[in-house]
Amino acid sequence: MANKIAPLSAAMEDYLKAIYLVRGSAAAATTMVLAATLGVSAASVTNMIKKLAVLKLVRHAPYHGVELTPAGEKIALEIVRHHRLLEAFLHDALGLPWDEVHGEAHKLEHVLSDNLEDHIAEYLGDPSVDPHGDPIPTKAGVVVTSAQHTLAELAPGARAVIVRVGAQDPAHLRYLRELGLVPQARLVVLACAPFGGPVRVRVRTRQVALDEPLARQIWVNVARKK
Amino acid sequence: MANKIAPLSAAMEDYLKAIYLVRGSAAAATTMVLAATLGVSAASVTNMIKKLAVLKLVRHAPYHGVELTPAGEKIALEIVRHHRLLEAFLHDALGLPWDEVHGEAHKLEHVLSDNLEDHIAEYLGDPSVDPHGDPIPTKAGVVVTSAQHTLAELAPGARAVIVRVGAQDPAHLRYLRELGLVPQARLVVLACAPFGGPVRVRVRTRQVALDEPLARQIWVNVARKK
DNA sequence: ACCGAAATTTAGTCATGGCTAAATTATATA
DNA sequence: TATATAATTTAGCCATGACTAAATTTCGGT
Asked: Are A159 and A222 in contact (CB under 8 A)?
């Protein structure tokens, strides 16, 4: 049934995951972007893309971008599931701070067996999001995204609950954790300077100001007025 | 302080661990034995041993055996600690059956950071043995071995408690688990045929017969007569 | 429509860690 | 003690996945 011919190398899995994530952020998966994402040279990216194209896991339009085929996306989703389940596990079960789980999960994700994945998912009660609020794809490869807006888009007076924090940098994550700006936190927008100014919000009893690039990384659900 | 010059590859760590374990079982670490242990060709072993010798992690007497230097043993002990802590964690925290933990731990042991190791050790309350009863080296590299005898050495009437099961084969492990022959189990020797015959023991309320090679893998502490 | 800068691909190199086949060394046995 | 056999090492090969430098293509701006 399954079309598993040969197991993919960890490097191949990394590329597929990177392509998936870049495409998911609405950007084109260009050679340069992938090189920056993966921390390798552009030539290495071209090289690997050609191998993945031979395996029918990506479609490559030379000098333009690269796209996942359905088979490639399936594998990418498995790796993303591994990664985010591991993040949830490391955070919830072992108490690792949320700025550390990404790096640890990255090293573990390629050696996680299906069997162990099942045990972890069961242990956690099949969570739907990781500690950053990123959705964990189901075993069948279904991804449920909830947030529609970022903090940067809200008008003063809006009440919202944080559902996802897109920031990656550990220093940023520690800072946001410090402020209480984590998934599930409720907040009220106090003020927003229109063109790229800082956003002022109240979270718990505290007032905090966030510069606009960071506010763009914080995804929220807006509370309906009652 | 530490003499960490370059991080070792997973392959190198595997070789050092294999040498440590082979030497620990009182056997000489020959090229053939290591090749069989690691599932690679003899030529590959010679090749890697030469690299490890350059790094001063092993001493190689060509055409004779190989021995770990103190530096090599230190690294081997770290990997063994990783491996056994992971086995304990997978078994105790995630409920993996003991015949599966070895394989899973083997894949994880090379990507376990010191930080995550600390969290796991703390979570488990710093265990001193893994699910097979093998000692977990301390962070300082101290190994405490307790058992002195195997089931095969006991005389009829002897009472003992199992402290370690040396068998590796998953089928054997499932069989022993089935019989209740696991670490901490108490047993009484009923009969032993002197030259390689089966050993008959009572464990819980059951009588079981074990062939001699398997009995040699079961390490016990003999209860003092009272 | 062209031209130069930026992006991309090609070409060639390197390290790692496997492999087989052939040569060499050690050892057991006659 | 000589020699066959087993163990080990050497030599040479291959795949993977990095890299740099050079060639090529695309594209924005005039």
From this structure: yes
Is the pTM value of this prediction over 0.95? no
Residue B226 banded pLDDT, cuts 50, 70, 90? low
Protein-to-nucleotide distance from the CA of A47 to the C1' of C7, whole angstroms: 15
Residues B173 and B188 grouped into a single domain: yes
Query: Is there a single domain that holds both residue B140 and residue B200?
Result: no
Q: Which residue's CA lies closest to nucleotide D24 at its C1' atom? A: A63
The answer to whether B137 and B80 are in contact (CB under 8 A) is yes
Same domain, residue pair B74 and B91: yes
For residue B170, give its domain range.
Answer: 149-222
If pLDDT is split at 50, 70 and 90, which confidence band does A196 have? low
Cβ pair A104:B113 closer than 8 A: yes
Which of B111, B113, B115 is most worth mutating to test chain A (most A CB atoms within 10 A of its CB)?
B111
Rounded distance between C-alpha atoms, residue A53 and residue A59, angstroms? 6
Please write the tens of the pLDDT for every residue from A40-75: 999 999 999 999 999 999 999 999 999 999 999 999
For residue B66, CA distances in Å to A171, B39, B57, B156 come to 46, 18, 10, 40
- What total number of domains does chain A contain? 2
Q: Among residues B100, B126, B145, which one ends one of the domains?
A: B145
Nearest CA in chain A to B114: A104
Contact indicator for A189, A157 with CB cutoff of 8 Å = yes
- Contact residues, chain B to chain A, C-beta under 8 Å: 90, 93-96, 100, 104, 107-108, 111, 113, 115-116, 119-120, 123
Q: Are residues B77 and B101 in the same domain?
A: yes
ipTM over 0.95: no
Residue nearest to nucleotide D10 (CA to C1'): B43
